[in-house]
Amino acid sequence: MSHADLLPADVPVQLIDPDGRVTASADALPSPEALLRAHEALVIGRRINDQAYALVRQGRLAVYPSSHGQEACEVAATLVLEQQDWLFPTYRDTVSIVSRGVDPVEVLVLLKGDWHSGYDPVATKVAPQATPLATQLLHAVGVAHAATLRGEDTVVMAMCGDGATSEGDFHEALNFAAVFKAPVVFFVQNNEFAISVPLARQSVAPSLAHKGVGYGVRGQRVDGNDVAALLSVLGAAVEAARSGEGPQLVEAHTYRMQAHTNADDATRYRTDDDVEAWRSRDPLLRSAAYLTAQGLLTDDRVAEMDEKAEQVAAAMRAGLMADVQPDPQELFQHVYAEPTPQLREQAAFLAEELSREDAV
Amino acid sequence: MAENPAGQHEKITMAQALNRALRDAMTEDDSVLMFGEDVGPLGGVFRITDGLTAEFGENRCFDTPLAESGIVGMAVGLAMNGMRPVVEMQFDAFAYPAFEQVVSHVAKLRNRTKGKLAMPITIRIPYAGGIGGVEHHCDSSEAYYVHTPGLTVLAPATVADGYAMLRAAIASPDPVVVLEPKKLYFSKDEVDLEVPQPGIGRAVVRREGTDATLIAYGTSVPLALEAADVAAAEGRSLQVVDVRSLVPFDDETVCAAVRSTGRAVVVAESAGFASVASEITARVTERCFHHLAAPVRRVTGFDIPYPPPKLERYHLPSVDRILDAVDSLQWDDA
Ligand SMILES: Cc1ncc(C[n+]2csc(CCOP(=O)(O)OP(=O)(O)O)c2C)c(N)n1
Hints:
The complex is a heterodimer. Chain A contains 15 helices and 7 strands.
């Protein structure tokens, strides 16, 4: 394969423009059903982001890194996967995990502070979220390689942000995946910032998708606020990985509309004008504009989607309002398959201390 | 086990015992994979993986790109998806690039997922010095791993343990760091590998003695035994305990040994400050205080980066230093 075959298009792939007009040939678009399904997921995803932000303000979540503005990336990453595929999300990817079918309350266990992960990674085929950047990309390669060794038809979707592409593990993962021809789609959500640091401080490469070339990995750029283009590009990448063409790298160009997390003050490093410019490119408005113009999104359908989103939000509120007191004895139970003698002693010590507290 | 014409067991090296452990584990369980740097056709720089690629194919024993974080990170994913990876870190100090993966994920995934994801990963690290190696080839890095909850840390010192402990590590449902004393790779012993050895979490008394207890692991075990030999010639009876399993730690065996003699010296070659030797000293003191005739002493390396080969003998514990420490244990006849 020549290096030219690995290079992304000069401009990110776009199928529908911010006004909802088709910018490619119509047969390049995903089916109306796929687009409607994606739109519903977008509506639910936005509702989850907004609800989670409100729950932070009420003290029900310790922290929330919102994907508001990035929902098209979030839902497309999941919708292109099959049942047997794995999703490797980052801390920001709550919406993509929910789109995979995991209960939002289970996903938010980490951010609520009850435990480090609230869902079963094996049953859901969603890796546990964790915050060390880019480390999960190597795990994704391992899962994919195991699948190859066992002759399983599994693709792994491995997500990270633009900042994470500067970490060593990002590069090791791309290289390992290429050398082992592992069926992994590396999906970079370039939202322009890593906390306060703009993309220009992470990389001066022509694009992040170009980074694949050095590893022999095909790169592609896509408009990250165009759910149709994302479904098409990510879908093709998954297809290529599944058919044995090796790992793929996809960079989505999007924008983080809110602060890094609720704890961050984004006004220190960007202006309202910057944010405003992106508001008109909102992935939901764009998808709605297109679907409405096509007559696919009727008032009834809108009401139905809003209703579903409302149900999800209500379930989130109910789940997070419940005060769950995690059992302190669990602290010792999941360190080793069998607690060491030292841990048994410490568990007994804590139990005894707690019983004295109860007695008081 | 090969027998020679005289019907005796052949002498084998620890390197051969480790190789045999890998071979047996891979034969018994298809999900065991061995990978790392130069472990394929070359058989590893110490030949621990000799012949495995030829026997099991390159899907089971293979070379990876040169990237330690990549090696361990990929092992995490393989373990998530049903494999039992065994990885070789070429030398102790080259495991540091993988440190984040080990500490943040290998050690924690069981806990993070409340036991839903086990990490049956074995990380083999040729460790410690005494071989005249240049910088970065002689570190004793056990304290870093021992300090990380979730990891099991083993340090075999005998040929039989080389086999038994590596087998136990691979069979463990949890991640195990096996510190292989490279100085002892080519030490030979006549052993029957079929004889079961005490499992993970057990210390062993290697030599009985009544006057004082030497507590050692890994490279320091043969040294402690040598010191006990010399002491015996001088009329002092030293007991030697081989800790074997740094985590979990066998308080029971170690403390019973110390109580039986009332005096103890801990020997290890890593820097002594905030070390495994410090931890053992503290544990023994807390549990055996009223049996002790003297404060527990440590004989360790200095708190310096591992020295160049021409100077390493000044750094490493020696028979003399061990015996001097023993002499300082407030003897009635002194
Ligand atoms: C190894 C590591 N270093 C630093 C951090 C702290 N940190 C958390 S998020 C973040 C920025 C990540 O930016 P990016 O990869 O672009 O993802 P985004 O948050 O924009 O989605 C940093 C520096 C971390 N989590 N892990």
